[in-house]
Specification:
By secondary structure, this protein is of the alpha/beta class. The protein has four helices and 28 strands. The protein has two domains: 138 residues, UDP N-Acetylglucosamine Acyltransferase, domain 1; 52 residues, Udp N-acetylglucosamine O-acyltransferase, Domain 2. It has an eleven-stranded mixed sheet.
Length: 263
């Protein structure tokens, strides 16, 4: 199958399209866009800017991919967007390029599902195998780890981190860092409800790994310990277990603080 461009689509000669690409009615692909093999661009999408997109991505319709950042300090400097492979972008998804102050780069990994009206702002770095439900929103400079889920109508504050395999429940307002493997739900403040044990089991995490995370959480949520004391106790009792060590490192490198059961 060769590349197919609908007669009503507009593709700039300086855009680069891979093999077997399909561009639907009234879509626009501007100069600077590099679109990988077997991508499907449905009707009424706009792909713009210095944007590199891998193979086998699907853009359903009405998306805005690679637009300039919504940042008052941005003055037209060259910035980039990079997207991996095998992602699905549903209706009205918006993804913005970076800003000079944030590294000039926004990145998305592979195998993600971005449902309708998802917004990924400038300088965000999103991992692979993620799910963003309808209207999930990242402010600028947010990092999201592999395997994470961001629920419908959930907003993540700028400069926050979402750890690997975290689950952010629908309608949450996230203003601190969300620990790996944990369930986060609620708004102002959002609260942590411990390991996402069912989700982790579905992803193939062994019983021993899940038990270690649960044991860690019991210590971390203890009302008798502050966070520093809890971390020390966890190190004494559970250090050396990969997932636990990952959570501890996440806590100790957090600049905004982490979301806990007590808010």
């Amino acid at each position: 199958m060769s590349t197919t461009i609908h007669p009503t689509a507009v593709v700039d000669p300086k855009a680069e399209l891979g093999e077997d690409v399909v561009v639907g009615p009234f879509s626009i692909i501007e100069a600077g866009v590099r679109l990988g093999d077997r991508c499907r661009v449905g009707p009424l999408n706009r792909l713009t800017g210095d944007t590199t997109i891998g193979s086998d991505n699907r853009f359903e319709s009405h998306g805005s991919i690679g637009a300039p950042p919504q940042d008052l300090k941005y003055a037209g400097e060259p910035t980039r967007l990079e997207i991996g492979n095998h992602n699905v972008f549903r209706e009205f998804v918006t993804i913005h390029r970076g800003t000079p102050g944030g590294g000039a780069l926004t990145t998305l990994g592979s195998n993600g599902l971005y449902m309708a009206y998802v917004h990924i702002a400038h300088d965000c770095h999103v991992g692979s195998d993620v799910i963003f439900a309808n209207n999930a929103t990242l402010a600028g400079h947010v990092d999201v780890g592999d395997g994470s889920t961001v629920g419908a109508l959930t907003a993540v504050h700028q400069f926050c981190r979402v750890g690997e395999h975290a689950f952010l429940g629908g309608g949450s307002i996230v203003t601190k860092d969300s620990m790996p493997f944990m369930k986060i739900v609620g708004n102002r403040p959002a609260r942590c409800f411990g390991p996402n044990t069912i989700g982790l089991e579905r992803k193939g995490f062994s019983e021993d790994r899940r038990k270690a995370l649960t044991a860690m959480w019991r210590i971390l949520r203890s009302p008798k310990l502050n966070t520093t004391q809890a971390v020390t106790k966890i190190k004494d009792e559970l250090a050396g277990q990969k997932d636990v060590d990952q959570v501890l490192d996440f806590i100790e490198t957090s600049e905004r603080g982490v979301i806990l059961a007590r808010g």
